[in-house]
Amino acid sequence: MKLYTKTGDQGETALIGARVAKDNIRVEAYGTIDELNCFVGSAVAELDANHFADLLEDLETIQHELFDAGSDLANVTAKRVLKLSETAVTNLEDRIDTLSEEAPEIERFILPGGTKAAAALHIARTVCRRAERSVVTLINKEKDVPDVPLRYLNRLSDYFFAAARVANSRVDVRDVEYVRSAKVFRNSKKQP
């Protein structure tokens, strides 16, 4: 199998059901999701299976779901079958809640970093937000764009934040609060 086709040499690429310019907003949206998927792979490479088996399982699922989201955005056929479901969104919410309960309480914004794994997850979080902005642009400019990818990306960035905090706390690395931040997080853990 040849990896190159030469079909994009004139600045166009194939969607599922059409050809468009490579700088088309739809291509930008699913291309940014592809970039995010690569950063997720980089985070996976930083996580030790002994401490983070659950996160590794989450991230593999997320990588598949990101391919689903990109595929859904690339498909412009009239009779498309969407791959990313609302269940993926609710599953992320459950994992966010679980991870948030595990991490220590914070009141202020934190500086991205700590361990290499946490830093990689924070990078994934910010690329996820950029992907989300690209999907919003697509939704605002084109019709018939599936809405689940947008909700999924919105939750996913929160997941990366929660996972980054756990990546630090499980190995006893403290998150550093942004010293000029107001108190922006409510104490969600019940006090006796």
TrEMBL record:
Boundaries of every Cobalamin adenosyltransferase-like domain copy: 3-167
Pfam family, one: Cob_adeno_trans
EC nos: 2.5.1.17
Catalyzed chemical reaction(s): 2 cob(II)alamin + reduced [electron-transfer flavoprotein] + 2 ATP = 2 adenosylcob(III)alamin + 2 triphosphate + oxidized [electron-transfer flavoprotein] + 3 H(+); 2 cob(II)yrinate a,c diamide + reduced [electron-transfer flavoprotein] + 2 ATP = 2 adenosylcob(III)yrinate a,c-diamide + 2 triphosphate + oxidized [electron-transfer flavoprotein] + 3 H(+)
Cited SUPFAM superfamilies: Cobalamin adenosyltransferase-like (SSF89028)
Keyword set includes ATP-binding: yes
UniProt keyword annotations, A-Z: ATP-binding, Cobalamin biosynthesis, Nucleotide-binding, Transferase
Coiled-coil intervals, chain numbering: none
Pathway info: Cofactor biosynthesis; adenosylcobalamin biosynthesis; adenosylcobalamin from cob(II)yrinate a,c-diamide: step 2/7
Endpoints of the signal sequence: none
Domain of life assignment: Bacteria
UniProt cross-references to InterPro entries, sorted A to Z: CblAdoTrfase-like, CblAdoTrfase-like_sf, PduO-typ
Molecular-function GO terms, alphabetical: corrinoid adenosyltransferase activity
Family stated for the protein in its record: Belongs to the Cob(I)alamin adenosyltransferase family.
Protein name, as recorded: Corrinoid adenosyltransferase
Natural source organism: Aciduricibacillus chroicocephali
Organism classification: Bacteria, Bacillati, Bacillota, Bacilli, Bacillales
